[in-house]
Write a structure and sequence with these properties.
This protein has 78 residues and is mostly helical. 83% of the residues lie in helices and 0% in strands. The longest helix has 29 residues, at 49-77.
Length: 78
């Protein structure tokens, strides 16, 4: 699935209104824009495969950490 960040904002609003956790919504938005197949294909043409793999791993770990962190502190923020 590919979407730009502006296309994800209405989806995120609906998910939050329906009761999704903040960390889940943020992780969804970051994952869709960062780790989409079209962006990986474009990056593959610009960087070496090893560097692309490191990028994907670091971004995935970062997105997961951010999701859990914001799920933990959501009730302090809202």
């Amino acid at each position: 699935m590919y979407a730009d960040i502006f296309g994800c904002i209405p989806i995120a609003e609906v998910l939050l209104a329906k009761g999704a956790l903040l960390g889940v919504v943020l992780s969804f938005m970051m994952g869709v824009t960062t780790l989409s197949l079209p962006s990986i294909i474009m990056l593959k043409k610009a960087v070496k495969p090893k560097l692309l793999g490191i990028f994907v791993v670091i971004c995935t770990i970062g997105i997961i950490v951010v999701g859990y962190f914001f799920n933990a502190i959501q009730y302090l923020l809202i």
